[in-house]
Amino acid sequence: MKRKIIIAALCSIAFSGFSQKYTAEKSFVSFYSHGTIEDIAAENTKTVSLFNTATGDVVFAVPIKEFEFDKSLMKEHFNEKYMDTEKFPKSTFQGKITGFQIDGKGEQKATAVGKLTMHGITQEVQIPGSIEVLDGKIVMKSTFVVKLADYKIEIPKLLWQNIAEQVEVKMEFTYKPL
User: What is the pTM of this model?
Assistant: First the structure.
């Protein structure tokens, strides 16, 4: 009996440090481009992410081929002509969250500051958002704009009316303890 109690205590101590690290249980990333002729929207639920509440470190990786479009031709063009997914299969972010307290109440405004890599180009960014602790899980949300030129994503001159020069990105991650 003593042995079981000691093992339980050691496990509790060993894993208590992990309670500061969270992994995305659910992810949702979407983008929207308003064009003169046609709007383009896509969604992705295959993003992976880790968040350390003790340090504020956050990372995520978005697999580009996992974006789903209303039209299959849009997906094909997106992957082959714009994002070059064979060469650049994912977009990543690595940075820190500021403005968040794990013991804070309600929705908290926060900012992610770090490096966003897309299409092989890395840019320093500040991404506004919010974080809320709900039932032991952390919900992180953000809406921000990405300028395609910043990541050398070229719009063919023939399609300039179809594709906006910037897209609105929305992200929502629900984290659970690691």
Answer: 0.84
